[in-house]
Structure to design on (586 residues):
């Protein structure tokens, strides 16, 4: 794992981005990494644009501030591309992962990105198929694992089963595992 | 060293965990906005029967501290948590807790005071209580918030101290962010803090005492205050020895100040709380470029580590003091006033600049720390004069 990975999550409140930011951090902790996961707290309104952040590092993390230059950007809601500058400050070799039916090429053009990687996954479609609800957070974790190479599929699924096992029925856990697995396999990556 | 478990948890969660492990007899709390999830999680421990604490739900934060005072005077081990407006509403009770020499331990999530309305990180709440006679620890991280809470109880209850203590952690940045924390096992914490033996319990009918009696004109009020000052001075060696014992137990070093690069620093920042790491991060980068930058983090604000600060800053050419709180009409922020006072007896006259930063949760971008150190380098080189107070990063 590289020195410090900074992930910025863009979503609408209610899509599970804060949970996803936390799940990714917890998975990294299981792999003995240092972690931070925090939402940018504002008024709580369903559907409002929100940001969340995850930091992962093999060394203790001493900085406490928002992420201005992310290595990874995850966009859970495609409609944000029109209103939020999601790619702001992304590093040269950064990875932008979007929940969309479009191709990485189309998203690259929309965002005006000429470097780094762009990854696309129909996370909402996968969530509707498996969870029967448009909660695209766990598919986005599967896509993130593949597009960034941060984790293999196994630790993600192991952690999901461990943490969801305390709160949800087996059906919900199985559906989420299916989400992660499908997204890991189906994500389209360019660059 | 004790057994430890590494967890991913928020500052609030690990402070609630520290409280559970300290086994308080009484916790009194009120969910004012903004309260913390510390008392919410503690209520969960009570509901699940994981603690034997009497959990007193009251009708205001003023009453929460009143109930804590009553319980502590009765002879109970008492802990609670608050934040911003809640702490402000407790103000008169804070003085009663310290005046009655009650070793109550309270976590405070540092959050802004209105107006305008803001619930984010700001030290203005705690700094407003800095003269209330409480020992004050400040945490940089969730780990320190956990560690400080346990140490604070041991110090507060020491028979030579008997003062209330506050364990402060930064609102949202530390309270609500998930961090990697090593948590001690229950037995180790219980053994470390020990059983509480109250010195003057009201419920000890074999040895009846009065608490909070009238001490008006001709009474011993004046002498009581001197006794509080002496207790605060007596707390210094106890804070150090408790810190050493805790280091042995946890493997984590403790000092009232923590220094980085101060062996040869020419420019230095003095800072409290979660922004300390931001300053250290930039100082580390500057040192790699040959700039002799250093950072002093203040972990215990009351009693203030004057001697340690003066020693750490000896030989430095320019100092920035970073305050996440205002003291309107003063020369600078509350920490600035203390640091400049600490340097008054120094043989060299060191330029000290007051920086106000991050009020109301304003993001402490690394670039602000770069700017602050660049200012200091100019002052140290003689190419700029130390100016008046700077609002770092204000638009």
């Amino acid at each position: 794992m590289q020195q410090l990975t900074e992930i910025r999550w863009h979503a609408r409140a209610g899509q599970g981005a804060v949970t996803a930011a936390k799940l990714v951090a917890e998975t990294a902790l299981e792999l003995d990494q240092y972690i931070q996961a925090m939402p940018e707290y504002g008024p709580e309104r369903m559907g409002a644009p929100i940001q969340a952040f995850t930091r992962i590092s093999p060394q203790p993390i001493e900085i406490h501030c928002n992420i201005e230059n992310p290595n990874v950007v995850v966009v859970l809601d495609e409609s944000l591309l029109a209103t939020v500058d999601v790619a702001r400050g992304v590093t040269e070799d950064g990875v932008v992962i979007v929940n969309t039916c479009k191709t990485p090429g189309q998203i690259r053009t929309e965002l005006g990105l000429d470097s780094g990687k762009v990854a696309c996954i129909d996370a909402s479609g996968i969530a509707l198929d498996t969870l029967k609800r448009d909660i695209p957070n766990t598919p986005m974790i599967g896509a993130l694992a593949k597009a960034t190479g941060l984790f293999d599929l196994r630790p993600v699924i192991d952690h999901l089963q461990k943490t969801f096992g305390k709160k949800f029925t087996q059906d919900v856990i199985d559906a989420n595992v299916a989400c992660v697995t499908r997204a890991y396999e189906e994500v389209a990556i360019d660059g | 060293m004790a057994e430890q478990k590494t967890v991913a948890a928020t500052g609030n969660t690990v402070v609630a965990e520290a409280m559970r492990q300290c086994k308080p007899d009484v916790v009194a709390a009120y969910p004012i906005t903004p309260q913390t999830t510390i008392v919410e999680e503690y209520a969960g421990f009570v509901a699940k029967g994981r603690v034997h604490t009497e959990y007193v739900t009251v009708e205001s934060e003023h009453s929460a501290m009143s109930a804590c005072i009553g319980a502590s005077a009765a002879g109970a081990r008492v802990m609670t948590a608050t934040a911003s407006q809640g702490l402000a509403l407790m103000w008169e009770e804070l003085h009663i807790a310290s005046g009655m020499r009650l070793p109550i331990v309270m976590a405070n999530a540092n959050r802004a005071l209105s107006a305008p309305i803001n619930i984010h990180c700001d030290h203005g709440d705690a700094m407003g209580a800095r003269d209330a006679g409480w020992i004050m620890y400040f945490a940089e991280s969730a780990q320190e918030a956990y560690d400080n809470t346990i140490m604070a109880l041991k110090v507060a209850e020491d028979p030579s101290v008997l003062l209330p203590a506050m364990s402060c952690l930064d609102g949202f940045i530390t309270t609500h962010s998930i961090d990697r924390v090593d948590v001690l096992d229950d037995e180790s914490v219980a053994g470390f803090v020990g059983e509480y033996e109250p010195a003057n319990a009201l419920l000890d009918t074999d040895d009846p005492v009065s608490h909070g009696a009238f001490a008006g004109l001709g009474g011993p009020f004046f002498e009581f205050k001197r006794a509080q000052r002496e207790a605060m001075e007596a707390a210094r060696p106890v804070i150090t020895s408790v810190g050493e014992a805790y280091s042995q137990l946890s493997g984590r070093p403790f000092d009232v100040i923590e220094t980085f690069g101060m062996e040869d620093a020419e420019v230095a920042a003095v800072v409290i709380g979660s922004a300390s790491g931001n300053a250290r991060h930039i100082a580390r980068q500057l040192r790699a470029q040959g700039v002799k930058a250093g950072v002093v983090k203040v972990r215990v604000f009351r009693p203030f580590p004057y001697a340690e600060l003066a020693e750490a800053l000896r030989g430095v050419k320019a100092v920035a003091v970073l305050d996440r709180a205002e003291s309107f009409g003063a020369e600078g922020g509350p920490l600035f006033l203390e640091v400049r006072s600490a340097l008054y007896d120094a043989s060299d006259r060191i330029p000290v600049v007051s920086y106000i930063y991050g009020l109301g949760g304003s993001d402490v971008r690394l670039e602000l720390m770069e700017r602050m150190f660049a200012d200091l380098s100019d002052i140290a080189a003689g190419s700029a004069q130390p100016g008046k107070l700077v609002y770092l990063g204000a638009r």
